[in-house]
Amino acid sequence: MATKQRGRPRAFDRDAALDKALRAFWERGYEAVSIAELTREIGIGAPSLYAAFGDKKALFDAALEVYGHSRNGTFINRALDEEPTARAAIARILREAAEGYTAPGQPKGCMVVSAGINTTTPEVAAELREMRNGNIGLLAERIQQDIAAGLLPPTTDAAGLARFVGAVIQGMSTQARDGASTQELEQVADAALRAWPAAEEIPPGA
Protein backbone atom coordinates (compact mmCIF):
# COMPACT_ATOMS: atom_id res chain seq x y z
CA MET A 1 0.00 0.00 0.00
CA ALA A 2 1.47 3.32 -1.06
CA THR A 3 2.17 5.85 1.65
CA LYS A 4 0.18 9.03 1.21
CA GLN A 5 2.44 11.98 0.52
CA ARG A 6 2.01 14.96 2.80
CA GLY A 7 1.51 18.29 1.13
CA ARG A 8 4.25 20.89 1.21
CA PRO A 9 3.92 23.31 4.15
CA ARG A 10 2.46 26.65 3.27
CA ALA A 11 5.17 29.26 2.70
CA PHE A 12 5.53 31.85 5.42
CA ASP A 13 4.20 35.20 4.21
CA ARG A 14 6.52 37.73 5.84
CA ASP A 15 4.64 40.77 4.50
CA ALA A 16 1.31 39.52 5.82
CA ALA A 17 2.90 38.77 9.19
CA LEU A 18 4.37 42.26 9.34
CA ASP A 19 1.01 43.81 8.50
CA LYS A 20 -0.64 41.94 11.38
CA ALA A 21 2.13 42.92 13.78
CA LEU A 22 1.90 46.53 12.60
CA ARG A 23 -1.82 46.66 13.34
CA ALA A 24 -1.32 45.12 16.78
CA PHE A 25 1.38 47.63 17.79
CA TRP A 26 -0.57 50.51 16.24
CA GLU A 27 -3.81 49.63 18.03
CA ARG A 28 -2.49 48.64 21.45
CA GLY A 29 1.02 50.07 21.75
CA TYR A 30 4.35 48.32 22.07
CA GLU A 31 4.11 47.45 25.75
CA ALA A 32 0.63 45.96 25.67
CA VAL A 33 1.32 43.49 22.85
CA SER A 34 2.83 40.21 24.05
CA ILE A 35 4.75 37.61 22.08
CA ALA A 36 1.88 35.17 22.70
CA GLU A 37 -0.58 37.62 21.13
CA LEU A 38 1.73 38.22 18.17
CA THR A 39 2.17 34.53 17.44
CA ARG A 40 -1.57 33.95 17.73
CA GLU A 41 -2.45 36.85 15.42
CA ILE A 42 0.27 36.06 12.89
CA GLY A 43 -0.48 32.34 13.04
CA ILE A 44 3.01 30.99 13.69
CA GLY A 45 4.81 29.56 16.69
CA ALA A 46 7.23 31.55 18.81
CA PRO A 47 10.30 29.73 17.39
CA SER A 48 9.22 30.65 13.84
CA LEU A 49 8.62 34.25 14.84
CA TYR A 50 12.05 34.52 16.44
CA ALA A 51 13.65 32.86 13.41
CA ALA A 52 11.94 35.26 11.00
CA PHE A 53 12.26 38.52 12.89
CA GLY A 54 14.42 38.10 15.98
CA ASP A 55 12.96 39.42 19.23
CA LYS A 56 9.87 41.56 19.84
CA LYS A 57 11.81 44.81 19.47
CA ALA A 58 13.19 43.70 16.09
CA LEU A 59 9.67 42.83 14.93
CA PHE A 60 8.45 46.23 16.12
CA ASP A 61 11.26 47.97 14.22
CA ALA A 62 10.36 46.06 11.06
CA ALA A 63 6.69 46.99 11.45
CA LEU A 64 7.62 50.61 12.11
CA GLU A 65 9.68 50.66 8.91
CA VAL A 66 6.67 49.42 6.96
CA TYR A 67 4.56 52.17 8.52
CA GLY A 68 7.23 54.75 7.73
CA HIS A 69 7.03 53.92 4.03
CA SER A 70 3.23 53.90 3.92
CA ARG A 71 1.05 56.90 3.09
CA ASN A 72 0.43 57.39 6.81
CA GLY A 73 4.14 57.62 7.49
CA THR A 74 5.18 59.86 4.59
CA PHE A 75 2.50 62.54 4.39
CA ILE A 76 4.52 65.13 6.32
CA ASN A 77 7.60 64.77 4.12
CA ARG A 78 5.53 64.80 0.93
CA ALA A 79 3.76 68.01 1.86
CA LEU A 80 6.99 69.74 2.84
CA ASP A 81 8.59 68.68 -0.46
CA GLU A 82 5.67 69.53 -2.73
CA GLU A 83 4.03 72.68 -1.35
CA PRO A 84 5.41 76.17 -2.18
CA THR A 85 5.28 77.63 1.34
CA ALA A 86 5.46 76.45 4.92
CA ARG A 87 1.88 77.53 5.53
CA ALA A 88 0.61 75.63 2.49
CA ALA A 89 2.58 72.55 3.54
CA ILE A 90 1.31 72.66 7.10
CA ALA A 91 -2.28 73.28 5.99
CA ARG A 92 -2.00 70.16 3.83
CA ILE A 93 -0.35 68.18 6.65
CA LEU A 94 -3.15 69.01 9.06
CA ARG A 95 -5.84 68.22 6.51
CA GLU A 96 -4.25 64.90 5.61
CA ALA A 97 -3.76 64.09 9.29
CA ALA A 98 -7.49 64.63 9.86
CA GLU A 99 -8.28 62.27 6.99
CA GLY A 100 -5.58 59.67 7.65
CA TYR A 101 -6.04 59.42 11.41
CA THR A 102 -9.74 58.63 10.95
CA ALA A 103 -9.55 56.49 7.80
CA PRO A 104 -11.77 53.40 7.87
CA GLY A 105 -10.24 49.94 7.90
CA GLN A 106 -7.16 50.83 9.93
CA PRO A 107 -6.31 51.75 13.53
CA LYS A 108 -7.04 55.37 14.45
CA GLY A 109 -4.38 57.99 14.98
CA CYS A 110 -0.66 57.86 14.26
CA MET A 111 1.38 54.76 15.08
CA VAL A 112 4.44 56.82 16.05
CA VAL A 113 2.30 58.54 18.69
CA SER A 114 0.10 55.60 19.69
CA ALA A 115 2.74 52.88 19.96
CA GLY A 116 4.64 54.83 22.60
CA ILE A 117 1.74 55.19 25.02
CA ASN A 118 2.74 53.81 28.45
CA THR A 119 5.96 52.43 27.01
CA THR A 120 8.47 51.50 29.70
CA THR A 121 11.05 50.10 27.27
CA PRO A 122 13.66 52.89 27.01
CA GLU A 123 14.83 51.94 23.51
CA VAL A 124 11.31 52.06 22.08
CA ALA A 125 10.45 55.31 23.86
CA ALA A 126 13.67 56.93 22.59
CA GLU A 127 13.13 55.69 19.03
CA LEU A 128 9.59 57.06 18.79
CA ARG A 129 10.56 60.31 20.51
CA GLU A 130 13.37 60.80 17.99
CA MET A 131 10.96 60.28 15.09
CA ARG A 132 8.46 62.79 16.48
CA ASN A 133 11.15 65.36 17.21
CA GLY A 134 12.63 64.74 13.77
CA ASN A 135 9.34 65.75 12.16
CA ILE A 136 9.22 68.90 14.27
CA GLY A 137 12.76 69.68 13.17
CA LEU A 138 11.73 69.39 9.53
CA LEU A 139 8.82 71.76 10.15
CA ALA A 140 11.14 74.26 11.81
CA GLU A 141 13.57 74.16 8.89
CA ARG A 142 10.79 74.86 6.41
CA ILE A 143 9.40 77.70 8.51
CA GLN A 144 12.89 79.19 8.79
CA GLN A 145 13.18 79.13 4.99
CA ASP A 146 10.00 81.20 4.72
CA ILE A 147 11.32 83.66 7.29
CA ALA A 148 14.51 84.06 5.25
CA ALA A 149 12.43 84.55 2.09
CA GLY A 150 10.35 87.29 3.71
CA LEU A 151 7.17 85.22 3.67
CA LEU A 152 6.95 85.34 7.46
CA PRO A 153 7.85 88.15 9.88
CA PRO A 154 11.55 88.12 10.89
CA THR A 155 10.46 87.91 14.53
CA THR A 156 8.76 84.55 13.95
CA ASP A 157 10.02 81.84 16.31
CA ALA A 158 10.52 78.95 13.87
CA ALA A 159 11.23 76.36 16.55
CA GLY A 160 8.30 77.46 18.71
CA LEU A 161 5.89 77.54 15.77
CA ALA A 162 7.02 74.08 14.65
CA ARG A 163 6.57 72.77 18.18
CA PHE A 164 3.04 74.21 18.21
CA VAL A 165 2.21 72.44 14.93
CA GLY A 166 3.70 69.22 16.29
CA ALA A 167 1.51 69.49 19.38
CA VAL A 168 -1.57 69.95 17.18
CA ILE A 169 -0.69 66.92 15.04
CA GLN A 170 -0.04 64.70 18.06
CA GLY A 171 -3.22 65.97 19.72
CA MET A 172 -5.21 65.16 16.59
CA SER A 173 -3.87 61.60 16.75
CA THR A 174 -5.04 61.23 20.34
CA GLN A 175 -8.41 62.78 19.55
CA ALA A 176 -8.87 60.35 16.66
CA ARG A 177 -8.27 57.42 19.01
CA ASP A 178 -10.88 58.93 21.33
CA GLY A 179 -13.44 58.90 18.53
CA ALA A 180 -13.16 62.35 16.93
CA SER A 181 -14.46 62.41 13.35
CA THR A 182 -12.64 63.68 10.27
CA GLN A 183 -14.79 66.82 10.29
CA GLU A 184 -14.03 67.51 13.95
CA LEU A 185 -10.29 67.17 13.34
CA GLU A 186 -10.56 69.45 10.30
CA GLN A 187 -12.05 72.07 12.64
CA VAL A 188 -9.01 71.67 14.89
CA ALA A 189 -6.78 72.16 11.85
CA ASP A 190 -8.65 75.31 10.83
CA ALA A 191 -8.31 76.75 14.33
CA ALA A 192 -4.58 76.04 14.35
CA LEU A 193 -4.07 77.75 11.00
CA ARG A 194 -5.80 80.88 12.28
CA ALA A 195 -2.85 81.25 14.66
CA TRP A 196 -0.39 81.32 11.76
CA PRO A 197 1.61 84.59 11.69
CA ALA A 198 0.80 86.95 8.83
CA ALA A 199 3.59 88.04 6.50
CA GLU A 200 4.73 91.60 7.07
CA GLU A 201 3.88 94.00 4.30
CA ILE A 202 6.91 95.52 2.60
CA PRO A 203 6.51 99.30 2.12
CA PRO A 204 6.56 100.46 -1.52
CA GLY A 205 10.06 101.29 -2.67
CA ALA A 206 11.69 99.53 0.24
TrEMBL record:
HTH tetR-type domain boundaries: 11-71
DNA-binding region: 34-53
This protein's record includes keyword Transcription regulation: yes
Pfam name, any one: TetR_C_13
Gene3D superfamilies: Homeodomain-like, Tetracycline Repressor, domain 2
Keywords, in A-Z order: DNA-binding, Transcription, Transcription regulation
Presence of keyword DNA-binding: yes
A single MF term (Gene Ontology): DNA binding
InterPro entries in the cross-refs: DNA-bd_HTH_TetR-type_CS, Homeodomain-like_sf, HTH_TetR, Tet_transcr_reg_TetR-rel_C_sf, TetR_C
SUPFAM superfamilies with a match to the protein in the record: Homeodomain-like (SSF46689), Tetracyclin repressor-like, C-terminal domain (SSF48498)
Protein name as annotated: TetR/AcrR family transcriptional regulator
